[in-house]
Amino acid sequence: MSDSIFSKPVAIMAVAGTAIFGMAQSNVSQANSSKVINLTQVGCQFVESENGTNHGYSPAKKADCVEINGKTAEKRLGAAKTLELKSGDYTFRVVNKNVPYELGFWLRSVGYDWRNPVHKLTKTSVSGGGLVQGMTKDYKVTLKPGEYVYSCPLNTTPDYKLIVR
Fold first, then answer.
1. Long-range contact pairs involving 72-77 (C-beta distance under 8 Å, separation at least 24)
2. What are phi and psi of 144, to 5 degrees?
3. How far is Cα 163 from Cα 142, in angstroms, rounded to an integer?
4. Backbone angles phi, psi at 72, to 5 degrees
5. What pLDDT score does 28 carry?
6. What is the pLDDT of residues 105-139, one digit of tens each?
């Protein structure tokens, strides 16, 4: 009875529905990925920002990165990739790949001062923490033409440059 004429159309419809749903899902992720910026945090740095180079730092705490970046950040920033984007809505997808303590992400207009109430109204600042080892978080932001920097204050990365045209 399992091969009855009635079971075949249902099976065909289920396969067709799965294929159509899979195609729709694929298109949605492709459309969204055009505005998603993936960033991988490892010890004291963002890998993509340093041209894909993981320097292999193994900090046990934030103070280790303060020391490492005090000695190496200037040279590394000189060779770092400036991220250039068009104005629009973006999601920065940040992953803590192998840092054994909580990380975060902070993107802000150049010169932003969180203590200045006028800056809170006129400049861009997006931030958040809670990125434990292996975790990925999304940070959504609308970027207008201008200069920005991004970093992780908890992993003490350098301030990487971002230009929006």
1. 73/158, 76/45, 76/50, 76/158, 77/158, 77/159, 77/160
2. -105, 160
3. 13
4. -120, -15
5. 31
6. 999 999 999 999 999 999 999 999 999 999 999 99
99 DSSP 8-state letter: -
Place domain 35-164 in its CATH homologous superfamily: Cupredoxins -  blue copper proteins (2.60.40.420)
Give the span between the Cα atoms of 98 and 134, in whole angstroms.
7
Taking 3-state DSSP, the helix, strand and coil percentages for the chain, each rounded to the nearest 5, stand at 35, 35, 35
Mean pLDDT of all residues in the chain? 85
Q: What is the mean pLDDT of residues 21-26?
A: 36
Left, alpha or beta for 56 (phi > 0: left; psi -120 to 50: alpha)?
Answer: left
Instruction: Specify the 3-state DSSP secondary structure of 75.
Output: helix
